[in-house]
Amino acid sequence: MATAEFEVPEVYKALAEILKSLSVAKGGTLPGNMGGKPYITAVDASAEVKRQFVANDLIFLPNEEVVRHENLTVGNSLKVAIVIRGEYTIISTRDASKVSISGTGDGLATGTAVASNIASTNALKNALLRAFLITEQSVEDAAKNGEAPTQAQAQATAAQARVAKAQPVAQGKVQSTKDEIRVNYIEKGLISGPEVNAAHEKYTKAGKNSAQAMEAVLADLKSGKLKGGA
């Protein structure tokens, strides 16, 4: 009885070759309060994968979308929290065969652009680590020791901020300048969080501390100098 033969698409052959030789160095070091252990950065993963892709005639096409965008009050400043889901298509230039991988990442920063970039980088790293079976031993060790990994810590901070944001403000009384801006302007749709962040950043660059900058933003809002969409 004849054995059926199947033509394996070139993209799968290339991925199999990459899995045989892929080795990613740990170029990052966690902060001292997180153990100070080495870990794989997004740069580590993408640089080695890029080298392997070039050697195996593969190209990489990203397609990312924002699945969550929140404005949070964290400490003395307004932050933007963004979660991105990415789907990445790997294509062989030998026969145009292709396959898709995916990943999710979050970002927390004072501006939308920076938060988006962080989330995008984390989504890409997440996809590459899973597609090429790369494990983070430092994260696994931290979990065994009851420690939170870097991304989980950021998520916990964001969650705490969301809880604080959800707390009702007593009628006729606001707890801080940030609360007043959030309650009387952002939540009423008079201005967006990113616009407030941009105005706040302008004042901090001019030499004001965070609290002074927030007070200046509030003064601009009350006077009508700062308006949403302006």
**Sheet with the most strands: spatial strand order:** 3-4-5
Helicity range: 40-55%
CATH class category name of the largest domain: Alpha Beta
Radius of gyration: 23 Å
Instruction: Give the helices and strands as they follow along the chain.
Output: HEEHEEEHHHHHH
**Quaternary arrangement of the chains shown?**
single chain
Q: State the domain count.
A: 2
Biggest beta sheet attributes = 3 strands, antiparallel
- What is the CA-CA span between the terminal residues? 77 Å
Global morphology? elongated
Average pLDDT for all residues: 80
Please give the CATH architecture of the largest domain: 2-Layer Sandwich
Beta-strand fraction estimate: 15-25%
Low-confidence segments:
148-174
| Strand tally | 5
Structural class: alpha+beta
What this model shows, in words?
The chain is 47% helix and 21% strand. The strands form two sheets. Strands 3-4-5 form a three-stranded antiparallel β-sheet. It is elongated and about 80 Å long. The longest helix has 20 residues, at 112-131. The protein is of the alpha+beta class. It has eight helices and five strands, in the order αββαβββαααααα. The chain has two domains: 10-167, Enolase-like, domain 1; 169-223, no CATH class.
